[in-house]
Amino acid sequence: MGTVDGGVATFGGSSVLINEHWVLTAAHALIANDGKLKSFSEGYRVGVTDNFLNGLGENQHATEWFLHPDYLSIGNGPDLALLYFSNPFTTVILTQMYEGSVQVGNALSMVGYGQPGTPSTGLLPIDGNRRAGVNSLSGIDRPIGYIEAEFRGPSESGF
User: Fold this and answer.
1) How many domains does one find in the chain?
2) Per the domain annotation, does 64 fall within a domain?
3) pLDDT tens for residues 94-122?
4) Can you provide one Gene Ontology molecular function annotated for this UniProt record (predicted)?
5) Does some domain include residue 90?
6) How far does Cα 100 stand from its chain's mean position?
7) Are residues 57 and 112 in the same domain?
8) DSSP secondary structure string, the chain?
């Protein structure tokens, strides 16, 4: 998901279309560095694609948005936001909700765009490529329900 301003789509963060009117995304995708809601004139771009910067998507205006009430900034509070769109999305596939239970040690699939980089390179410029991986669940923070997984490469101990 990203914002569209002046005909240019800007990456904001990975998102999930949870029904034809609602999108779940990261709160930081909506908040500017000054802590205020980002300003954009042409709405949001939501789509399913391997590369956000070049891929297809559907642009719409959100009529309502809700930040998690405990979100303060990146790394400080639940980084979640819901966006409501009066007009339904028609070209984006809905995500099926998982209704099972999870336990530490279960395999966990993760998909998102995120910012590339490693400890040796640091953060690299956003390239718009979708990334995916499978990891094992290392913790569940109760009662909130956050899930935790550590990212380690094959050469790192404990991989």
Assistant:
1) 2
2) yes
3) 777 778 887 888 887 777 766 777 778 88
4) serine-type endopeptidase activity
5) no
6) 22
7) no
8) -EEEETTEEEE---EEEEETTEEEE-GGGTB-TTSSBPP-SS-EEE---SBTTTS--EEE--SEEEE-TT--BTTBS---EEEE-SSPPSSSPPPPPP-S---TT-EEEEEE----EETTTEE-----B-EEEEEE--EEETTTTEEE-----TTSTT-
91 belongs to a structural domain:
no
Residue whose pair of structure tokens reads 């309502």 in the numeric block: 64
Domain containing 152 equals: 98-159
Task: Give the bridge partners for 157, in sequence order.
Answer: none
Spatial separation of the C-alpha atoms in residues 127 and 114, rounded to whole Å: 9
| pTM across the whole model | 0.67
